[in-house]
Amino acid sequence: MYIRSLGIFNILVATAVMGAVNEPCVGSGGSAGVCVTTATCSASGGVTISGGCPSDASDVKCCSKASCSNGSAGNCRWTSDCAGTVVSNQCPGPSAFKCCSSAATGFGGYPTPSYPTVGTSAGACKQVSVSGAQAVVAAWPGRVRQIYCTRDCACPGTSDHCCGKAVDLMCSDAGGDATESGRQIAEWVMNNRNSLNLKYVIWGQRIWNPSVDSVLTWTSWRSMEDRGSITENHWDHVHVSFN
Question: How far is CA 154 from the centre of its chain?
Fold first, then answer.
């Protein structure tokens, strides 16, 4: 899997630019949402809230749809988060945002993932990364599907992956599948920053760095630029870098 490197500039001053239409957001009442134009949302029978897609154009808002035709509990959400069956063509946004038959979240349900091997070379996965991944999986059993540590790049490179000091915690059904699951994991990482020896954490096109940020809910983290995909905008995995 390739995830674009995070440069030092972006770590320190991640700024809000044009955001990512058709990607997740937190909708009305905390429901699953998608960033779409107000016209698209209205045509699909959804409702919009302001502020849910802060990096997007003014006519793009967070759209959610709490009721759709798939049993008594039908609601629109990302397919990776549906605990029941899904029906297409009833929800706004991309095809992965569908009508789910269950009111319960379908977060996780994965077997315990394999952990990267700790090595001694400059580019090998470090113990701090493996220990951090193990701590997250222990705190959130069933929520992490797969763990990536190293990348094919020379240390120090432009990413902590190059030196084995970062992990990508995949928390959706497949790479490229959007989920809302990572928010809880990312906020837990922030709250356990000292024991994890955290450098920074990224989830859902937002970044939190203990050296520059106050402890805040994810919706108040600093926005990052749109990198062009679900994976590169960190909507299918939590990135955690360690000191």
Answer: 26
Q: What predicted TM-score, i.e. pTM, was given to this entire model?
A: 0.90
Specify the pLDDT at position 19.
53
pLDDT, residue 53, reads 87
Length of the chain: 243
Tokens, residue 11: 């770590």
Q: How many domains does the chain have?
A: 2
- 238 beta partners: 169
What are the backbone dihedrals phi and psi of residue 46, each rounded to the nearest 5 degrees, phi first? -95, 180
Say if residue 95 is in the same domain as residue 145.
no
Q: Supply the pLDDT for residue 13.
A: 35
Please calculate the CA angle 1-172-205 and round it to the nearest 5 degrees. 75
Q: Which residues of the chain have pLDDT under 50?
A: 1-18
Please report, for the chain, how many H helices and E strands are present, in that order: 5, 13
Domain assignment of residue 142, given as a range: 108-242
Amino acid in position 157: G
Instruction: Provide the b/e sequence for 8-20 (b: ≥16 CB within 10 Å).
Output: eebbeebeeeebb
The 3-state DSSP class for residue 132 equals helix
Whether residue 13 is contained in a domain is answered as: no
Q: How far apart are CA 35 and CA 227, in angstroms?
A: 15
Token digits of residue 173: 């059904």
